[in-house]
Structures are given as structure tokens and as C-alpha cells.
Amino acid sequence: MGHHPVEDSNNSNNRPFEEIINARLSRRRMLTGTASAATVSVLGAFGLAACGGSRSSNSGSAGTPADTGGLTVAPNKLGFRAVPTSLEDRVIVPEGYRADVLYAKGDPLISGLAPFRNDGTDVDYDNRSGDEHDGMHFFGLNSNGQYDATVSDRGILVLNHENLEDTTLHETTTAKQDAIDASDAATLKKIVDREMGGHGVSCVEVRKTDGKWSVVLDSPYNRRLTIFTEMDMKGPVAGADFVRTRLSPDGSKRFGTMNNCANGYTPWGTYLAAEENWYAYFATLETAELDALSDKEKAWVARYGIGAAWAYRQWDLVSGDQYARFDISAMGASATDDFRNEANAHGYITEVDPFRPAQKPRVRTAFGRFSHEGAWVAPVKAGQPVVIYSGDDSRREYMYKYVSAVAWDPADANAGLVAGDKYLDEGTLYVAVFNEDGSGSWKALSIDNPELAGTQTYQLDDTTSLDFDFQNQAEVLASARLAADVLGATPMDRPEWAAVNPLNGDVYLTLTNGNASNRPADQLDGANPRAINANGHIIRWKEDNANHAATAFEWDIFLFGASADASTDFNVSGLTADNEFSSPDGLFIDPRGVLWIQTDDGSSGIRSTTNNQMLVAIPGTVGDGESVTVTTSDSSDQASTPTFVGQSAEAVQLKRFLVGPRGCEITGITMTADARSLFINVQHPGEGGSAAEFNRDVSTWPATSGDATAVGEADNRPRSATIVIYREDGGEIAI
Ligand code: FEO
Ligand code: CA
Ligand code: CA
Fold it and tell me: Ligand 2 centre from 668 Cα, in Å?
């Protein structure tokens, strides 16, 4: 999201790229020689040497696209005209396309519930759409009620509700404070229930009838998960002393999931909801309370920013344990008498089975605790482990992957949470180190890793060192950031979404942006080569032998965000008016190998010239570009940093496909198997508007007609929504 402070607690000095340029021994540079020869020699020599012989999906010799089962795999051409930048308050799509609003904030999931009222009086959010739609997946649903990825006209759409647009949610923007001031407990509870219910996840059955998608009201699959929903804790952290609370004295359960940003989905038909900015929902501890903590607990609070409080909403002022848990003070005689451990149970991935609504979600702790943006499962192969990529979206944070202990068995394809128990509770978490020569390695966050043994030190500030040790695997996982610090992981410019190219296994990761404090000119490296980096970039890598469980990889930078009119050593990818972008966030490579980029560009990007947008490209492959030096200035210092960049924006045919309404972020993306329906989310239109106008001075989207390309009526409070995009002629999207 673009409208919150970004957690910035990494005080470690992990700066592995400080060697001077002359020390670089790049295998790639030796192979490629000059930039102009790079394309040819990389596809030949480097491709064979380091890429396991996998081919580029769009090399010039690829020829005509393969047409497999009605789907064009590896197309070599995009088939639409780029849309221009826009500041209009509506969705813009290419000529020949339509966009319909499918599921907007406040829309009911059951009949008999009043439609969204547009006046902030709605309640019953456990039966209507939550706020701030984000990560999303379409699960095909067959006539037996089972997951079938090939079904393209009926499915369960599962999506996250990341946060609240507080300005538009209630009757008035002062409603909660008024209730607190008046000691009006009943009104305050109603407001807090709306806020806690506005978070979480929606499971929504959707059907296409006569070419048009709609929500199936009263479907048995319709379900809301909110901050009240009971879940089972699973994996190494379940039952640990440090997750026991008054509501979970044995550490076996947790209530709710919050700040669910991006997502993932498994080959066994379940949904993975990440928790991103969970640490900010708790009341800040007083100094005396902080002083009473152990050094390890102090390191956790500091390193995770717990109690940063910018999303603290005074929920603990309502009476009852479900609300009291947002005050993590040690008030009782022991940990099971209060909620001092409540924050330790958050920051994991939640697994949901959309097909078995009666089953409680399971909290998967083996992926570690951090600000998970999402959880992207690499394509599985029988007999090989399940591998899941997950970035930690805060400034100077790291990229992780999880490798299951058990190898994939295709017989588990419909096993739901039972398969989750098998593949997600036992495995190894790794963190990425990006080396200056274009190589990289994965280091294990394992209690058996000798690098994690003994006393460790977290430097709280200039004068305070906190000493601690890792006692067991549960502590390593709950302290993932601290363990990754010890392992020398590479601090990145805010890891957002990842995506794996199904055609060649390349892994892509958006690095949305940086700022002067986390990326000053003297702390650059090849993987994060621009000072401040207000426009972000997209890095990618190929695992050794195209094996996702490998511990070594080769990387380059796919694209750099920039204004089209920036100098060529900053606008490194050669962006033009048809594809300039800033702050990449959402990312998706569809089954055909077409890559989609969604932006969450704040005030420091190019937002003054366009609303947030979505672009499409046909990506090449790692190593298909050249060695470059990028130049940036943070006004005090000029920096020139060598790195590796992929082909130009023109060569990958990068084109703007969509622009959203005013104040929004475009996020969340999923496509039907026939590539003829594309679902995306428009999050927080109207952001930045005035409270007095309920943000209507910025946006009144969406229109009540349901046409996403229309401007809304003047009285509409703007609201987040899922939209569905399709071609008027019924053809495959984007090609
Ligand atoms: Fe919720 Fe990292 O965006
Ligand atoms: Ca975002
Ligand atoms: Ca995001």
C-alpha cells in the first residue's frame, strides 16, 4: 500500500557489495564482452553454461507461438495498442476490451443483507466484502465441488482485504473518537467490529453466464475470514512458550489474520494469505514495559517494529479478550493471563481451503515471521520438494524461500489442508544473498546452521547492544530477520511480489522503491544500484539447473522504473510514453508466459502524471541483456553503480494495458485457465482526499452501473473493488 509509513528497523550493516569495480570478476562480463554483443552471446554461451539449456521464451527464432489446447503458449507478440497515461477518475483499458466491477467493498455475500449503503452505516462485514482488496486467486470449481484449474467459467475467487480506508468507512470520520469521548461502549463496539470485520479474506463463488461474471449469492463457498476468525497454529512455532496467551494457553490457536497484502496458491487447491504490516496494530509499549523485557524480546520488538502503532486503532478499548489482545502489555501474573505474546503469533502465512469452508484456516509458521508480502509456490514436479518464494516488504529487508522436506506427490492434488500439513510444516527456510558478480546463494535459517550458533548481538542503537542466542528452530523462525542479519543476507529495496515464469523457471521480484535513509549513495550494490530509488526495479534470477530447491542462482535486473524523460543512465530500460512506470508492486506471469506488472506509486514517483497502472511484457530470460552502469544522485552524492540489466523495454514489448481511477493502487491479479477473463483489484481509490468529503474530492469510483470504465456518480464514496476484464470478441487477453 502506498499510504502507510514503511517499517525500517534493519540496523544491521549487511553490505556485501562494497568492493570496488575493478575487483569484479563477472563470469557474465567475461562471456558477453561488449554490450552490443550481449544478446547473441548470452543466449548462446551463458544460456548453455548457466541456464541448463532452457530457451528464451521470445528469442527471435522462437517463431510462431505454440497453440496448446486453445491457449497460446509463449506468444511472441502482444496484440493491443498501449493505453496512454491518465489522471481520469475511471479505469482505462485498451480498445476492444471491457472492464466490469464484480465485487466492491461492502457488497453482500448473502441475500437478505442490505446492499452497500454509501453512508458508512453498513455492519455485518462477516457477510460482505471487506475493504482494500489486494492479493487474489481464481480457483476453478468443477461440478463435483472440487478444485479444477482447467475450469474457466465457474470458480471461487479468494482475495485479501489488506487494510481500511478509514476516511470512508464510518458514518463520519470522527465517529470512533466521538464514541470514545462519550464513553459510548455500544457504538464503539459497532465501529470496531466494522474495522476488524473489514480486514481479512473473502472467498466468493463467481460464475460466467452469457459472457458476464457475477457473484453467486448464498453459495456454500462464500465466506469471510476476519480478525475474529479462529485458526490453528501449525509448524515449529505452534505451542512455543512465546505464543501462549489467555485465548491460547497452549499456543495452538490464533484469532484472525490482518494486513493481508499479497497471496499465493498451492497445487493442492488452497490459498495462502500473507500478513504484511501486522506489527503496527498493537499499542506501543511504555518505556518501563520495554525495560522489563529480556534482551531477546527487546530485539524482537525493535527488529520487527512491534507497536509502531500507525495501524493501531484502539481496538483494545472495547471490553473482551478479542479486543484486549491488541494491548501487548504484561498486565497479568503470567503470559497466559494476558496478551504479552499476541504479536508473536502474527507475521506468518495463513493457509485457507476454499473448497472445505468448515475447516479452520491453518497458520504456517515454517515460512518464518516477517512482513510477508506474499507466498509464491514454484511450479511443482513429482519427486521434488515444494518451493515457495516470499519477500519481506520493508526497507532494507530480505528475500526468502522455503523448501519442503517432503517431495511433491501429484496424488495430493485435491488434498487441501492435509497436504498443507505435509508440505508446509516441515522444511527449510532460506534467505538470499545477491553477489556483485551476478551470482547468488541461499543460506539456511536452520538451528543446525553453525553460523547461527552461540551468542548473537543486535545493535539497538549507537549505545545499546542486545545479546541473545537461538535456542531452537521455533526461535530461529520467529526471529527470521535477526537470523538473516547474522547470515549476511542482502538488504533489498522493499521486496514486493514474486512470480515464476512457468516456461523457463525464472523467478521475478518487484523491488518497489527505496528512500534516502535506506538507500543512500554510499550503500548501493549491484542488486539495488540506485540511490533513493524512488521508481523501483524488478530483479530476477535463475536457480542452478533450473532447480528451485538449489542453493545458488544467477541474477540480473529485468526492468528499472523511471520517467520516460529521465536521462539514459537513470532510465536504464529505455521506457517511453507507452510504458513509463514507477514503484512496481503486483507481479504475475500467466500460464502463457506473459508478464504483468502493477504499480503502487506514491508521491515521489510519477503519480503527478498518471494514476496507478498495469503493464504487460513478454519477458526474456536471465542473462539476455548486458552489463551497465546506472547513475543516481541523492543530491549530496553522485553514484555510479555497475549491474546487469535485461533487454530493453522495447525488446520485451512492455506496454501499458490499464490505468486505474484517481488515488488508487492497482494490485491483485489472477486469470482463468483459458486466458479470457482477467481479475484485478482497484485498491483505495480516492486516497489522499479530504475527510470532510469522504475522499470524494479525489474519486467517486466506481459507478453504480458496474461499468469500471465509467466515472462514478458525484455522491459515491470511493471504494475498493475487484474488476474483471475481457475482450469484446471473447479472445485471449493481451495477445
Ligand atoms: Fe501491501 Fe507491500 O504492499
Ligand atoms: Ca502496495
Ligand atoms: Ca503490495
Answer: 10
1 lines ligand 1 (CB under 6 A): yes
Burial class (CB in 10 A: 0-12, 13-18, 19+), 287: exposed
Tell me the CA–centroid distance for residue 161 and ligand 2, in Å: 12
CB 612 within 8 A of CB 597: no
Would you give the distance in Å from CA 114 to the centre of its chain? 32
Do 622 and 51 meet the contact criterion of CB atoms below 8 Å apart? yes
352: nearest Cα among 157, 585, 509:
157
DSSP, res 96: T
CA 503 to chain centre: 22
CA distance 282 to 487: 29
Q: Which of left, alpha, beta for 183 (phi over 0: left; psi -120 to 50: alpha)?
A: left
Give the closest residue to 150 by CA, choosing from 141, 159, 158. 141
Over pLDDT 70: what percentage of the chain?
90
In this structure, are residues 374 and 263 in contact, taking their beta carbons and an 8 Å threshold?
yes
Q: 3-class DSSP state for residue 32?
A: helix
What is the pTM assigned to this prediction? 0.92
Model pLDDT for residues 604-635, shown as the tens digit of each residue: 567 789 999 999 999 999 999 999 999 987 66
Whether the bond into 702 is cis, omega within 30 of 0? yes
Instruction: Please report the sign of the dihedral spanned by the C-alpha atoms of residue 118, residue 121, residue 126, residue 132.
Output: positive
Ligand 1 atom closest to Cα of residue 134: 1
List the beta strands (DSSP E) in 438-488: 439-444, 456-459, 465-468
Q: Which ligand is nearest to the CA of 372?
A: 1
Task: Split the chain (735 residues) into runs of 10 and give each run's mean pLDDT.
Answer: 61 47 32 31 27 33 52 96 97 98 98 96 97 98 96 98 97 97 98 98 98 98 98 98 98 98 98 98 96 96 93 97 98 98 98 98 98 98 98 98 98 97 98 98 98 97 96 98 98 98 98 92 95 95 96 98 93 97 98 98 78 97 97 78 97 98 98 98 96 97 98 98 98 98
Give the ligand 1 atom nearest the CA of 494. Answer: 2
> Is the distance from the beta carbon of residue 276 to the nearest atom of ligand 1 less than 6 Å?
yes
Q: How far is Cα 47 from Cα 100, in angstroms, rounded to an integer? A: 42
Which strand (E) or helix (H) includes residue 72? strand 71-73
Protein residue whose Cα sits closest to atom 3 of ligand 1: 1
Place of cell 524488478: 538
Residue 194 to residue 53: CA distance in whole angstroms = 54
DSSP 665-710: EEEEEEE-TTS--EEEEEE-TTTT--GGGTTTTT--PSPTT-BTTS
Q: Please tell me if the CB atom of residue 509 comes closer than 6 angstroms to any atom of ligand 1.
A: no
Does residue 373 have its Cβ closer than 6 Å to ligand 1? yes
Ligand closest to 163 (CA) is 1
Sign of CA dihedral 304, 307, 312, 318: positive
Spatial separation of the C-alpha atoms in residues 574 and 578, rounded to whole Å: 11
